[in-house]
Amino acid sequence: MFSLSSRVFSRCNIQSSILCIVHCKHCTTSQKSRQPLQSDNLNSPQKNDFYGQPTPYTHPHLMKEGELIPGIELNEFKERRNRLMHKVVSTTHNRYHLAVIPSAPKIYMTEKIPYVFRQNSDFLYLTGCMEPDSVLVLSGDSSENFKSTIFLRKRDPHSELWDGPRTGVERAPTFFGVHQSLPISELKLFLMSHMKSYPGLVLWYDYLNAVNTEVHSVMTSVIDGANGKQIWESPRYFTHQLRLIKSPVEQRLMQESCNIASTAVSKAMAVTRPGITEHQLFATVDYESRMKGAEILAYPPVVAAGNNATIIHYINNTQQTQSGDMVLMDAGCEYHGYVSDITRTWPVDGKFTDPQRVLYEIILALQLELIQISKNFPSLDDLFHFMCRSLGYKLDEAGVFSSNVPKDKLAQVAYEFCPHHVSHYLGMDVHDTALIKRSIPIKHGMVITIEPGVYISKNNVLARPEFRGMGIRIEDDILVTDSGPVVLSALCPKEIDEIEKIVSSSTY
Questions:
Q1: Burial tier of 61 (Cβ tally within 10 Å: 0-12, 13-18, 19+)
Q2: What is the DSSP letter of 183?
Q3: Is the dihedral of CA 259, 483, 434, 244 positive or negative?
Q4: CATH topology (fold) of 2-243
Q5: Angle in degrees, CA 472, 455, 318, rounded to 5
Q6: Which of 62, 323, 385, 456 has the most CB atoms in a 10 Å sphere around its CB?
Q7: What is each CA distance from 320 to 183, 307, 326, 368, in whole angstroms?
């Protein structure tokens, strides 16, 4: 925690309308006499209404009535905000708390040409709002009188002609289930009013990781101008704690994301034959994912043939496959805000060579062991340490090493063959909830990956020559439950017989 620099505000000289909204101590408007919430007098979205995002009436093929975003109802977002504020106020019971979570901005690749917009995951998780240049502010104290305010761009016919509809300030309270909405231009004034009204408040804002530069500029100005005793902290850790455990509807969305990606990767296997390029396989998984309902791929996929597969984050995807190669594909899709992350490795010719089969069977057996072990609720770090030990022994037993390795060094040598962690959290982001340590025990409702691999470049003298130039990884997405692990990506083949059958019957 850090103390804010001090600067004395003039006494209650801010617009009275904003002061009433925040219930300034020096204003005569009280909690009991305040006007009804803006949402009290507005109707729900109607068939002919257009908002800044899909609705059940404009996109009935995607959404059901009552859902704010596909698959998730409005009440879930209200509950998420309430749980976040319970965590926030529990840190300091005798203070007023103000949490500020910005949306992502629109980013441009060149003048007037934007990149595809992707919302800030924390903001989307708490609001369901898909619009850029917005801010959620949550306020309250230990009395649990929490209040939610969303700041949005105003309706603007000229801008909407170019960029599409906006929800607008007037309709936002009902649409997003918040107490009130204000224009984004009034954010600074709103925050300064709170600073004046509650001199000891705790400001929750992720100051060190600016999501939106314009909002960050406002926050910097507010913090620099604060009246002496305020403190600020980041709310991200608490938000990540909430996001770590997937609700039933989130689990269903992740299952569908995995189903789509599994089918797409299987299709890439089915079109593989010598001479096809990595880029064509990339295009196949992208096309198949979108055709099945995914909005975008979850990340730039790895499509690596031959020795390229020994480069863990190879994303150039420019090489032509050759007879005798294996292809390693690491791909996933994003489905209504939730992602999948799957890796499969298969032979271009449709038949594993003997050395390829040896390595593949090692990784497959290891992955199945790790999935089985996960039912005992170890930590991700525990799974990683098991992988290193087991991989070392399996490589040694199979005669992969070019020289003898002492038993007590096998885990260390194995790490050189697989220098990445074996698991990470998965959810709205690929490497989800980054602030949650991998040393905590996994528990019911988490989704994790399990992804052992082995990477032996052509120049790796630690391995015998016949094993060089190969990279293999098998990755599945696992829902942790009290009754055991559920493989969400089970539709994607990984047994040798299945893979060889699919690739051998290439339809390309």
A1: exposed
A2: E
A3: positive
A4: Creatine Amidinohydrolase; Chain A, domain 1 (3.40.350)
A5: 75
A6: 456
A7: 53, 12, 12, 32
pLDDT value at position 36?
A: 39
Q: Give the containing element (helix H, strand E) for 194.
A: helix 187-197
Beta strands (DSSP E) in 184-236 are: 202-204, 231-233
Stated length of the chain = 508
Residue-wise pLDDT for 404-442, tens only, equals 999 999 999 999 999 999 999 999 999 999 999 999 999
Q: Find, among 223, 227, 170, 159, the residue nearest to 197 by Cα.
A: 227
Asked if residues 83 and 116 have their Cβ atoms less than 8 Å apart, the reply is: no
- The count of other CB atoms within 10 Å of the CB of residue 455 is 20
Residue 44 contacts by C-beta under 8 Å, 6 or more apart in sequence?
Answer: 174
Q: Which amino acid is at 443?
A: K
* Residue of 445, 460, 448, 346 lying closest to 395 (CA atoms): 460
For residue 448 the two structure tokens come to 């994790």
pLDDT at 194 over 60: yes
- Which amino acid is present at 36? P
Q: Which residues of 249-265 are buried (b: 16+ CB within 10 A; e: fewer)?
A: ebbebbbbbbbbbbbbb
Q: Which amino acid, one-letter code, is at 456?
A: I
Residue 219 to residues 51, 207, 344: CA-CA distances in angstroms? Answer: 28, 8, 45
The answer as to CATH 3.90.230.10 being correct for domain 245-504 is yes
pLDDT for 30 equals: 35
Tokens of 153: 């761009």
- Scan for tokens 């390795």, then name that residue: 405
Q: How far is CA 389 from the centre of its chain?
A: 30
Q: How do the domains of the chain map onto residue ranges?
A: 2-243, 245-504
Q: What is the pTM of this model?
A: 0.90
Q: What is the mean pLDDT of residues 335-340?
A: 98
What does residue 54 show for φ and ψ, rounded to 5 degrees? Answer: -60, 150
Question: Rounded distance, CA 316 to CA 165, Å?
Answer: 37
